[in-house]
Amino acid sequence: MGRMIRYVRLLKTPNIFPNSLFTTRSVIYRMKSSDSGDRIIDVNKIRNFSIVAHVDHGKSTLADRLLEITGVIKPGAEHAQILDNLQVERERGITVKAVTASLNYTLNNEQYLLNLIDTPGHVDFSNEVVRSVAACQGVILLVDANEGIQAQTVAVHSLAKKNNLVIIPTLNKVDLPRANPDKVKAQLKSVFNIDPETVMSISAKKGWGVKELLEAVIQRIPPPQVNNDEHFRAHIIDTWHDKFRGVLCLAYIHSGKVKVGQSVRWKSDPKQHSVKYLALLRPKEEPIEEATAGQVVMVGCGPKGGGNVGDQLLALESSENADVSSIPPVRHMVYAGIFPADQSQHPLLSDAIKKLALNDSAVSVKNDTSPALGQGWRVGFLGLLHLDVFTQRLLQEYKAEAILTAPSVPYKVKVQGSKAIKKYKGEEVIITNPLLLPEAQNIAEYYEPFVIGTIITPVEYIGTVTTLCIDRRGTPLPSSAVDESMTMLQFILPLSEVVIDFHDTLKSITSGFASFDYQDHGFHPSALVRLDILLNGVLVEELSTIVHVSRLEYNARRLTEKLKEMIPRQMVQVAIQAVVAGKVFARETIKAYRKDVTAKLYGGDVTRRKKLLKQQAEGKKKMRSVANIKIPRNTFIDVLKR
Question: Which residue ranges does the record assign to the Tr-type G domain (predicted)?
Fold first, then answer.
């Protein structure tokens, strides 16, 4: 996109959104483009919206059809899932990153700028959805006409309501033989009190009804509420690294305007920067000279320009007390250690983690050390899938191979008097690494994180699902019927019982029909202990875990049995022990390979035989150390899976 010329004028048109307070002043800018010529778009012709739904309900497919209708891509199977541009997304068939595309569409001879954000559906990437809706005025709530309402559907609807967004309920996959639109509309009425007359019906795969949905977006979703009389102010909803241009940011502009060459500053850093790059994402970059309030644009301030998700980009004249809506802080559910396969690769892995953490703002990174693995990092994630995808992206995008330690959830302890931990006396301390847990005599009380789990399941599986939740130390909450065949159950569950394999087990016992989502319920008192793993009497710090006392013996047996299967047989006998405060709760033994050193003897004095056996015994004694025991790199994450 070429040069941009800005105009300001007062519109005398009536307010078409009587329930909202929209300004009648609009900012109009003229854009010159090689493909569409001159066009004038004002703020009242901008629509910012997201597509939100449960996993596999067709968000990315719908995004493809919208790109086709607006002329961004040509119809064809080779363009399937065009916004899922990461290799891990195409391999797994899921959306990991929320992606923005600015689209042009003409309705009733009026040209509109539509900023579309395609969001993930899995709960482990819910932070992407939270960041996306912060830049939107409405959402398309997509529901599979075959499956009906799922657990994540409830979560994203609640998020949209919390942010006061306009919701366009839409049924997808209505072309399939099993589709039952009337039943799903009844579910929407029962659970969300949505009028069935307002529900759109489409087939994203075949394109049925997508054009009508796009027009409904223009008619139902209001334009952004902006104030162009104020100085430039924007908040950052995404960042990524470019090897030539440094940090690039996706910004939603709340007020004022910004143009290439303008001096700006970050709210977190008063240092002055110059805007060097400005572009619309269509979804490929289309450079522009100027952007105004209400738009979602890419901004770059050069290799040293900086920028973080949640920060604000301001004009130099902006006051410090002015503020805009901010993104809530991330609550990490799982922590794991990441170490280089070889310490010589530490600089490469460090650079890769920094760049990937810039693109994935949901992770937290702190330096960590391990006697067995050397220098590394303690990284916080939103779930086990998030952890798995992060390490896969490290390997695919940066060729950085990493070793993972066993994942654990954060705990909280209240510390009582001790000279060694005097600075924490009487305080509540968050423990993300089991090795940092103080001695039991220094802890007044343990606190465990809990979540409220929402499960939508067919009625015939209610008993099985309830048994599973009770077995995982769950406490039932009141349930409600979705319709005559589906029920929504809620349980208060320990986070440690949920993040590892709860979802897989739930799918298994319900033949894949149940769906699960959870939200934070805070820390609550619990009876906890630290379970250590010893190999030949030497502590393996990476395998230490914090467990509930009711699960102690079960976890001890499971860990030792799994390690026996996963650790290769060695030249020496390996004793695997699960220990709590010096007491052994489970033990397994891996027998050593044995070489018959006396095979070459064919008689003679017995002392020769004894001498050879003694030498063999002394040699094996020297080998009995953890450094000589080969532990497969996948052991640390696989060992906690049931």
Answer: 44-225
